[in-house]
Write a structure and sequence with these properties.
The complex is a heterodimer of chains A (185) and B (473). Chain A has six helices and four strands. Chain A has 185 residues and is of the alpha+beta class. The longest helix of chain A has 25 residues. Chain A starts with a helix and ends with a strand. Chain B has three domains: 160 residues, no CATH class; 115 residues, no CATH class; 145 residues, no CATH class. Chain B contains 21 helices and six strands. Chain B has a four-stranded mixed beta sheet. A two-stranded antiparallel ribbon of chain B has the order 1-2. In chain B, helix 2 packs antiparallel against helix 5, helix 8 packs across helix 16 and helix 13 packs antiparallel against helix 14. Chain B starts with a helix and ends with a helix. Classes of the chains: A alpha+beta (185), B alpha+beta (473). At the A-B interface, helix 2, helix 3, helix 4, helix 5 and helix 6 of A face helix 1, helix 6, helix 7, helix 9 and helix 10 of B.
């Protein structure tokens, strides 16, 4: 219930006006920042373009930056596995894939990181750094070759839902390549 | 004009219960704490200068403007670990509500710092945690269900034998939270709608078969995939359903009961619990499901708590009368026990009665001797009526009393009360396990016997109460 005595009290009324303006600004900022131009909805794209210069600094400095493209526009279909291999005795050593033998939680962080590194293209500086850490953690001698090997397949994108039977008989078409390679310092 | 001001004022400053934000604070900090703890082994790898983003890669890894993180200044692994521990401590303090405002602010700022230091391991759940943390940091009242609040309540209880009224706050943080949820769902819905797989019903099956996310073996996912078309469309409908929350108030009186604001909000929250709960059970999507459910707690309003309480009381309890708890207000342990029980009395079933007050004792327990009351806590549960005969003061006639109570004391009273205090529901069944009741009775008797023992062997209250106790026998 509105209290008239509050409005008559200038400092408190002033504070209320500030809070209202802040709320409106915050709501506008969150909405504008979340608009994705890929939606191709002209009024929203226009609003984002007009508003973003005013709200960008606020969203960034308060760490409220956000995009809500979760499992969209289509869910992620590339399934990747990674492993670090060393070149010893004239052959790349067989090592377990990173999703094997480590805890689910550890795996989640590391595989998500590698998935992001994968998006940055082969031999990106951060993937090189990943190998550098592997050299250090495994105590590899200078000059030892190490690489991140990737094995991946892409889930089907059928036009109609697959039956349970079809999923049961689905065989992934695994491919493999090297994400990055370097020699240990 | 005055009406307009009143409307605006009410829209932003109407008082609402602060319980929702209190619960959200606990769930938010608990979620952030859990997921941060799970990074224990990866802290130097993710956040130190020895990790995946060393200083020489800063320029190509981060935006150059409006970015703040304490890790701009703290880089070596040991120091990063120290900040990590500080963050865990701040989150733990936020969960229990110790120095609530300070701990929440520190926890939020440090969480932001971790997220700004390395974007690579972040997911949707981390963004939700940042959003909730920010709202908690700026909300004027977040101390519901906190130790800080308990301390204030204790002072009030000691001084007035009543608890403080429920905490309230202006509604504007709630509106910002609701807006955040609307944005999340509508933006997510629009993004899905711009693809093909959600429309042709294949999206859920694809997501379930991605082995980064799948919690269950593929044969299980194969079977669940049969529901993919229904689940894909339901997801789109649910996400766009949040548009209903923007329905202006003036439309509402003309609409049937089913789509009034509370009904819509509750339906969306219920749908969201099913939606995020199912995702959590089937898929590993990091902290997203849990963080979203934590945020839902902040959307609960007074009427939700009241309706839930009434529903539970109607469904599972005899609400003809309250449970009378006869306690000794002259004993600190008893007062403290009564205070804790009242804090846990979310269903509003308990009525504390100080049996040292002769008038109250005669009103509520005329048939129990003071000696018995002094020996253990007694409770009177609503139950069958028992007729008693007693001599009137004149001694020449009999009066008939009808006690519609079941009386329990000591451990048995505590065990019965556990069913009425939601926080104790989990332990209540264990109090019936063979072996526990006799042990419980022994432990209770020992505590009760020693409750008045003081350093000098004779307590202040005993000096005060014993003569009266004698005269009342």
């Amino acid at each position: 219930m509105a209290n008239p005595s509050i409005l008559s009290s200038v400092p408190r009324a002033g504070l209320r006006v500030v809070i209202i303006l802040f709320c409106l600004f915050h709501m506008t900022a969150v909405a504008a920042y979340s608009i994705n131009e890929e939606w191709k909805i002209a009024p929203l794209t226009f609003t984002r373009k007009q508003t973003l210069p005013w709200v960008r600094s606020y969203m960034l400095i308060t760490s409220q930056w956000q995009q809500w493209n979760l499992f969209s526009p289509d869910p992620l279909r590339r399934v990747s596995r990674y492993r670090v291999q060393t070149f010893e005795g004239n052959a790349w050593q067989e090592t377990p894939w990173l999703h094997e033998g480590i805890s689910r939680f550890h795996r989640a962080g590391v595989t998500k990181t590698l998935r992001r590194l994968e998006e940055q293209g082969p031999d990106s500086p951060r993937t090189q750094q990943f190998l550098l850490i592997a050299c250090r953690e495994q105590g590899l001698a200078a000059g030892t070759l190490v690489r991140v090997q990737r094995m991946y397949h892409v889930l089907p994108k059928p036009e109609r839902p697959l039956t349970v039977q079809k999923w049961k008989t689905y065989l992934p078409d695994w491919k493999s390549d090297t994400l990055a390679e370097r020699s240990c310092p | 004009m005055k009406n307009l001001f009143t409307m605006i004022d009410r829209f932003f400053f109407r008082r609402i219960s602060a319980s929702g934000f209190g619960l959200m604070r606990i769930a938010w900090a608990g979620t952030a704490l859990t997921f941060l703890l799970l990074q224990w082994g990866d802290v130097p790898f993710f956040y130190s200068n020895q990790g995946i983003i060393p200083p020489e890669l800063y320029d190509s890894s981060f935006r150059s403007d409006f970015r703040f993180t304490v890790f701009n200044y703290i880089e070596n692994p040991q120091a990063v670990f120290a900040v990590y521990f500080l963050t865990l401590a701040a989150l733990a303090a936020t969960v229990v509500g110790w120095k609530t405002r300070l701990s929440t602010t520190v926890a939020t700022v440090l969480l932001f710092s971790f997220h700004e230091r390395n974007l690579l391991p972040l997911g949707g759940g981390d963004t939700v945690l940042r959003n909730l943390g920010f709202l908690l940091m700026i909300a004027p009242q977040i101390s519901a269900f906190s130790l800080d609040r308990v301390r204030r309540q204790w002072r009030s209880w000691e001084e007035t034998k009543t608890l403080l009224p429920s905490l309230t706050m202006p509604i504007w943080p709630w509106r910002l939270l609701l807006w955040q949820f609307i944005i999340i769902y509508i933006a997510s819905g629009l993004d899905k709608a711009s693809g093909m797989m959600w429309w042709n019903g294949t999206a859920v099956a694809s997501a379930l078969h991605h082995d980064h996310f799948a919690r269950w073996p593929m044969p299980v996912m194969d079977i669940i995939s049969a529901a993919s078309p229904v689940l894909s469309y339901a997801t789109i409908v649910f996400e766009f359903g949040w548009l209903l929350m923007l329905m202006p108030r003036w439309i509402i009186p003309g609409l049937p009961q089913l789509i009034r604001p509370n009904a819509v909000r509750r339906a969306l929250l219920f749908g969201g619990v099913l939606f995020h709960g199912s995702i959590f059970l089937l898929m590993d999507v990091g902290s997203f499901s849990v963080a979203m459910l934590a945020g839902y707690l902040g959307l609960l309003l007074d009427e939700d708590f009241i309706d839930l309480r009434d529903w539970i009381n109607r469904k599972f309890a005899n609400r003809k009368s309250e449970i009378v708890v006869l306690y000794d207000a002259s004993c600190r342990l008893c007062r403290r026990s009564m205070f804790v029980m009242l804090l846990l009395d979310h269903l509003h079933r308990l009525k504390p009665v100080n049996f040292r007050d002769t008038k109250l004792r005669k009103e509520h327990a005329p048939d129990i001797t003071l000696k018995d009351l002094d020996r253990s806590m007694h409770i009177r549960l609503p139950g069958e009526c028992i007729k008693h005969k007693a001599k009137s003061k004149k001694g020449d006639s009999f009066m008939h009393f009808a006690f519609c109570f079941q009386t329990l004391n000591g451990f048995d009273a505590f065990r019965a009360l556990a069913w009425h205090l939601p926080t104790l529901w989990l332990i209540a069944p264990f109090l019936y396990v063979p072996g526990i009741p006799p042990l419980g009775r022994i432990a209770y008797a020992r505590i009760a016997a020693s409750r008045n023992r003081c350093a000098d062997g004779f307590c202040e209250h005993e000096k005060n109460w014993l003569p009266r106790l004698d005269s009342n026998q």
